[in-house]
Design brief:
Blueprint lengths: L1 H35 L8 H37 L2 H7 L4 H24 L1 H17 L8 H6 L5 E5 L2 E10 L2 E10 L5 E12 L3 E13 L2 E13 L8 E3 L10 H13 L5 H31 L5 H28 L4 H25 L1
Antiparallel strand pairs: 1-2, 1-7, 2-3, 3-4, 4-5, 5-6
Helix pairs in contact: 1-2, 1-4, 2-4, 2-5, 2-8, 2-9, 4-8, 7-8, 8-9, 8-10, 9-10
């Protein structure tokens, strides 16, 4: 029986790999053609190619559920068309056992997708953003946070390690005015809020003057006032210090997204989209198993009576329905103020229910 499990797993993984390769090649060609339009003296063809390759990592992550569905319908459908699945059933390998074996292989792909989304994708997207920023402002002199804040009446947000800092403007002499600092603890919860009339960024610390300190402990808030306060600072230009206004959820892992959501809540800003992105990390990986659940009834029921062209059309149709449905439901959850976790998992639940119902009908039919 284990040999059959391995055989089904190899067929699924091989089909998914071929489908992913084809989809990724098309995506890369379209992206490269689009990037070539922006090639100039500052943004070379090599930059465009590197940007395309980096963003392809994120593209592969997004295309994985589609590739798994297409690969399953084609590869396992071919097994059914050649009566191999019938032969397995003759060996007392039931439809439920075949489905369970395929879903176990899907679980491995789910884990791979989650790890990819938490490691390679954020790093690649962040590097791609750096290439774009360098191209968009090739000769721009670096601004201080205060100078940048002066250009924007809303001030500027920075992330410095565990501190999220809002700088209201410039006070002269290298000092910033109307500075608020939101500090997170080890559990990624808001620990204290620091408001300072003035602040200055030294080499390794923030120096704050005329400070109001609000500490949150066990649901209670204690407020103290100090003439000055010093906070450890990430090195200027280090990865730990960055402009929050430029943050892209695709360039963050789940822990960074959790921090970002907590920060937005503490700042009384809308964190619905960031929270949706956080929960989507989990639902996107889970969707791989759901795609396989949807594919199995089609494979058992009609694979022997339909050609590979129809099977491919079915797979693409289901993939488009899921992708469009997920986006629409996610956006609707943000607009209608539905909990983002519902917006992230509702499409997965609906498609999983549809697959389970079809499998049940197949078993009883």
């Amino acid at each position: 029986m284990r040999q059959i499990d391995r055989y089904l797993g190899r067929s699924l993984l091989g089909g998914a790999a071929l489908a992913l390769l084809a989809l990724a090649a098309v995506d890369a060609m379209i992206s490269l053609v689009d990037e070539v339009k922006d090639v100039d003296d500052d943004y070379t063809l090599a930059d465009a190619a590197l940007y395309t390759v980096l963003m392809l990592v994120a593209g592969v992550y997004e295309l994985l559920p589609v590739a798994v569905l297409v690969g399953a319908v084609i590869s396992l459908g071919n097994l059914a068309a050649q009566s191999e699945l019938v032969a397995f059933r003759a060996l007392h390998y039931s439809r439920a056992r075949i489905t369970a074996s395929v879903l176990m292989s899907g679980a491995l792909l789910m884990v791979f997708a989650f790890v990819l989304g938490e490691t390679a994708v954020p790093a690649a997207v962040e590097k791609a953003q750096q290439i774009k920023h360098a191209q968009q402002e090739p000769q721009a002199a670096p601004q201080s946070a205060a100078e940048s804040a002066d250009e924007n009446t809303g001030g500027r947000w920075l992330r410095d390690g565990r501190h999220f800092i809002h700088i209201g403007g410039a006070a002269g002499g290298g000092w910033h005015s109307e500075v608020s600092v939101y500090e997170l603890n080890d559990e990624h919860h808001l620990a204290r809020i620091i408001e300072a009339a003035r602040a200055q960024a030294a080499a390794d610390e923030w120096v704050l003057a005329d400070v109001t300190l609000s500490e949150l402990r066990g649901g209670e808030v204690s407020i103290t006032r100090r003439e000055s306060l010093r906070l450890p600072r990430a090195a200027p230009g280090a990865a730990g210090e960055r402009d929050v206004s430029d943050l892209n959820p695709a360039a963050m892992n789940v822990f960074q997204l959790f921090d970002y959501v907590e920060f937005l809540r503490a700042s009384k800003l809308s964190g619905a989209r960031a929270e949706l992105a956080l929960w989507t990390r989990f639902s996107a990986a889970l969707s791989i198993v759901v795609m396989l659940l949807l594919a199995m009834p089609w494979i058992f029921f009609s694979a022997r009576s339909t050609g590979s062209g129809r099977r491919l059309f079915f797979a693409i149709l289901i993939s488009l329905a899921y992708m469009i449905g997920s986006r629409v439901i996610g956006d609707a959850a943000v607009v209608w103020q539905i909990p983002p976790v519902v917006g992230a998992f509702l499409p997965v639940a609906l498609f999983a229910a549809a697959g389970a119902v079809l499998l049940r009908k197949l078993q009883t039919g």
